[in-house]
Amino acid sequence: MSPKSSSINTFQQESVETPDTAKKRLWDSEQPQKPSYKRTRARIAELDEEVQSLQPSTQRETCDLAAKLDRLENENRKLHRVLEAIKVAVAEDEDGDKSYENDTSDRSRKISLEPPNAYYGEGVDVVSLLYEGLLSFDPKTPHESSIHPRPERVPITIPPTMLHPIPRKINQIYEYVFRISNGDAREVENADPGLIFKAINEGWETLHAKTMQNPLFLILFHIDQRIFYQQQKVTRLAILYKDLNLFKAGYLAE
Questions:
Q1: What mean pLDDT comes out for the span 20-34?
Q2: pLDDT tens digits for 159-171?
Q3: Which region, left, alpha or beta, applies to residue 123 given φ > 0 means left and ψ of -120 to 50 means alpha?
Q4: Listed residue (247, 122, 93, 65) closest to 174, CA to CA
Q5: Is residue 51 part of a domain?
Q6: Distance CA 47, CA 120 (A)
Q7: Which domain holds residue 48?
Q8: pLDDT tens digits along 71-114
């Protein structure tokens, strides 16, 4: 055998890898990666536990935020309703005051511009009229005021809005309406309509103190005593029953 063929056989033997050699080489290549692999697995497990622990708290916070948003939206709607009602009431007061001022100024202007001889008719000389009256004076003749009556004094009337400031009382009642919160929904729902009949028939003082702590009955009390206290009992009863149903429908629907 030549040296050349011997070297070829030796190279072929060395290039052929046995199974044990392949396993050993694979094991040697995996050893440096094992610590990194273990650290990665441990970190993944920690992240999984953290995500699982955060899920319930995140859900609770989301529910709390949604509830707060609902409360804020309800309060915002109530504020808008109260603001619109106050605007209407203030506009009615201003219109009543302006109309009253215009009426009184027109009357005073008309009376001040009216000439003196208008009391005696157009074209009548006051001096000659007095002279003739003195010469032809007769006690039996009627008095001059009966012959030439002066216009009656124009009575100055105050508009009803100034005598009975209903809009101002309504604005005060809105303060109690706005105090009702979502936590009072159960008390509003449990308001007994039969107690309205007792309050109108026997008096509000006959109701139990706990009943008057109900925000809805407090509002009905002020509506009855501030606005409709001079009406008949049947009218007051009908108004309060209607208001009770309206308040219940409005607050329980939100």
A1: 71
A2: 444 445 566 677 6
A3: left
A4: 247
A5: yes
A6: 108
A7: 25-93
A8: 888 888 887 777 777 777 666 655 655 555 565 555 555 544 44
Task: Tell me the mean pLDDT in the region 17-39.
Answer: 72
Provide the pLDDT for residue 121: 45
Helix-helix angle 166-179:34-113, to 10 degrees: 170
Residue 249 has pLDDT above 80, yes or no: no
With a CB cutoff of 8 Å and minimum separation 6, the contacts of 215 are: 176, 179, 180, 184, 187, 188
How far does CA 90 lie from the centroid of its chain?
Answer: 16
Q: Let me know whether 166 and 249 are in one domain.
A: yes
Tokens for 105, please give them: 């100024």
Any domain includes 48 = yes
Number of domains in the chain: 2
Distance from C-alpha of 155 to C-alpha of 89, rounded to nearest angstrom: 28
